[in-house]
Amino acid sequence: MKWQGRRQSSNVEDRRGQGSSGQGFGGFSPTLLAPLVKILFSKVGLFLVGGFLVVSLIMGKNPLTIISQLLSGGGVPTESSAPYKASPEDEELADFSATILANTEDVWNQLMSNYREPTLVLFTGSVSSACGSASSAMGPFYCPGDEKVYIDLSFFDDMERRLNAPGDFAQAYVIAHEVGHHIQKITGISEKVQRLRGQVSEKEYNEYSVKLELQADFLAGVWAHHSQAMTRIMETGDLEEALNAANAIGDDRLQKQSSGRVVPDSFTHGTSAQRMRWFKKGFDTGDVSQGDTFSASSL
Ligand SMILES: [Zn+2]
């Protein structure tokens, strides 16, 4: 891909280095709670609470974070988490992701008059979202509750090494797929499917989620089509990279890798062939109206 030197999105939240501590309140010790509660309920406490609220408002920080840092003897620090040192490779991946996100903004703003730009959250280890907390082992995901795409950039390493799906366009496809879920939030289709949960059998619900996933692949293809027309960002071999990735991360392939056999009923993303087919259809047509995976006679 010819991605370098292009616009990077400002809708990126860098939370790398803040995850996987496993402690609430940023390392807040429970043994400090009792004396703190006593102080809070005294007159001095009320004064302190007011003071902390003012300080936290000025600093834009959670007052509990400031209190815990004061109690741990660190004074009022300027950073709320341990410094995170990204490798040059990670920095390049972060720049790349922000560039691809910007590219999806340009395409979808043109294709949809009511497009709202989602936020991309970069994290390491674990992260909390409006959809609950998640570890990077789950892979990248989109949370409709806060309209954010979450990704631990180490997933791209995994794709290359474990899933044998290397290449920057394969990575762009992953981001575009998650943005596809965001478009499904805007069109209301994901909510419709969500509402069926518990009302239809688990097997039937699974079929609906597969259709949702394949539509996200289709939308990633539509993005690639228009991105190429608008910005000529793709190079020879890029399409194959995305198709190879769609092939590698199909549920049948993933399940074979993890358990050695394929169990079609528990598919939630679609088979490798289905994922490739829908991405390709979006890429070939560039026509959003052709992505109705729900009424398609065959997937
Ligand atoms: Zn998905």
Structure notes:
The protein has 299 residues and is of the alpha/beta class. The chain is built from eleven helices and six strands. The protein has helices at residues 33-41, 43-59, 63-71, 88-111, 154-161, 168-187, 189-195, 202-231, 238-248, 251-259, 272-285; strands at 12-15, 119-123, 126-129, 132-135, 141-143, 148-151. The strands form two sheets. Strands 1-2-6-5 form a four-stranded mixed beta sheet, with helices on one face. A hairpin with a 4-residue loop joins strand 5 and strand 6. Helix 1 crosses helix 2 (43-59), helix 4 packs across helix 6 and helix 8 runs parallel beside helix 11. The chain is globular. Residues 21-32 and 71-79 have low confidence and may be disordered. The structure holds zinc ion (ZN). Zinc ion is lined by residues 177, 181, 213, 216.
